[in-house]
Amino acid sequence: MQESGSKISQSSSKNVKAIVIVAALGYFVDIYDLILFSIVRIPSLKSLGVTGDALLSDGVLLLNMQMAGMLIGGILWGVLGDKRGRISVLFGSIIMYSVANILNGFVMDVQQYAVLRVIAGIGLAGELGAGITLVSEVMSKESRGYGTTIVASVGILGAVVAALVADMFDWRTAYFVGGGMGLLLLFLRIGIYESGMFKNIKSGEIVRGEFLHLFTNWNRFKKYVKCILIGAPLWFVVGILITFSDAFAKQLGVEGVVPAKSVMFCYIGLAAGDMLSGYLSQYFKSRKKIILAFIFATNILIIVYLFFNTFGSFYFYTVCIALGISCGYWAVFVTNASEQFGTNLRATVTTTVPNFIRGTVVPLTLLFQFLNPSVGIIYSAGLVAGLALILAYISAARLEETYGKDLDYIEMI
Questions:
Q1: Whole-structure pTM over 0.70, yes or no?
Q2: Which residue in 35, 87, 110, 232 could disulfide with 159, CB within 3.0 to 4.6 Å?
Q3: Residue 132's domain spans which residues?
Q4: Number of structural domains, the chain?
Q5: Which is it for the CA torsion 184, 188, 193, 194, positive or negative?
Q6: Helix, strand, or coil here: 97?
Q7: The domain that contains 338 carries what CATH number?
Q8: Which tens digits make up the pLDDT trace of 362-384?
Q9: Is residue 236 assigned to a domain?
């Protein structure tokens, strides 16, 4: 009997490891495709005949279209994840964004580009939430932080590979590579199993995946909004400071800064930061304290980036790496969001929260553009950053500590 139990335990352990690996690789491809546009923004738009100031305005338009798609996809895949299962999202989302990104390699004008960025955004929205939810539910409450950290840290490196591929090949080929990797990953997902927690509630009459129920209870709604706001500084940094780093460098008098390299260096920092924040949250047995510490570090480094960053491209890229490290609380805050809600709403929350955070790029960039003509690019970015940081501080301070929380429960709806 002991031998049989040992074999079952080993089999279970192998399945958990397989789920973590597959989720990590899925997020790797997700980040590759998500960030690729920021990297190839200028060469792709120039190839389509866009010049001058339109490079910035059309770039912002396409970025906002992608993020709008992710807002729609976040709700779609989140609800599906709670109604049909985490595995169905892992398969459906990767098919959609892989095909969309392959088609991105064939666009002939900005209008086609915009439509396909929306479709790709919808597909990209499902990957992280479903993966984190599944990993959180199949691992023990003491060790799940390590699993979600591996997923986020490996996934973040997709941006580094995107930068390298974009540097080696034409922008159209870079899109083909991303879509091809996604389709290949489908074969690795055959055989992974569904979360036991989800199976337990699927067989009953429990209400699952009702997105609107996040807004029908005041305490639940406040908790949900706080989960979103704590990530706003991260996507302000990536979506504005790093994506448009060439414009900031020009204003600061720094020559030779290329957005693709800024993205690559920032994401190298993000990967290191995710590993560090995940480890620290396990070591100190606290998600909340680590999130607050990393938000504070992000605050300091945004000030450095905007006002003490005139010492050449090498220094500029070094600040990008440091900003990435400080913003590397992505793994911890997504894990925290997953741990805040019951099994019948967990996939909905874990999928919509990161995508709504990514979607905050839309109002943040609009506010940034609105302020830019009157106060200039540096101070408009500083004002927008201040707003995002204040909201993040308040939200993180008022959220429940979730380290070691038992996730096998449901939300009463």
A1: yes
A2: 35
A3: 10-185+214-397
A4: 1
A5: negative
A6: helix
A7: 1.20.1250.20
A8: 788 889 989 998 999 999 999 99
A9: yes
